[in-house]
Amino acid sequence: VNEQFLAEITAALAAIVEQGSYKSPPTLVSPQSAAVRLVDGAEVLVFCSNDYLGLASDADVVAAGIDGLRRYGAGTASVRFVCGTFIPHVELEAELANLQATEAALTYSSCWSANLAALTTVVDDSTTVLSDALNHASLIDGIRQSRAGRKVVYPHSDMAALAELLSDCSRTPGRILIVTDGVFSMEGDLAPLADLLELAERFDAVVLMDDSHGTGVLGREGRGTAEHFGVLGEVDIVTGTLGKALGGAAGGFVAARRPVVDLLFQSSRPQIFSNPIPPSVACSAQQAIRTLRARPELLRRLRDNVKVFRDGLAERGLDSLPGESAIIPVVLYDEKLAERLSHRLLEEGILVTAFRYPVVPTGEARIRVQITARHTRDDLHRTLDTIARCAKEVQAR
Ligand SMILES: Cc1ncc(COP(=O)(O)O)c(C=O)c1O
Question: How far apart are the first and last CA of the chain?
Answer without folding.
Answer: 46
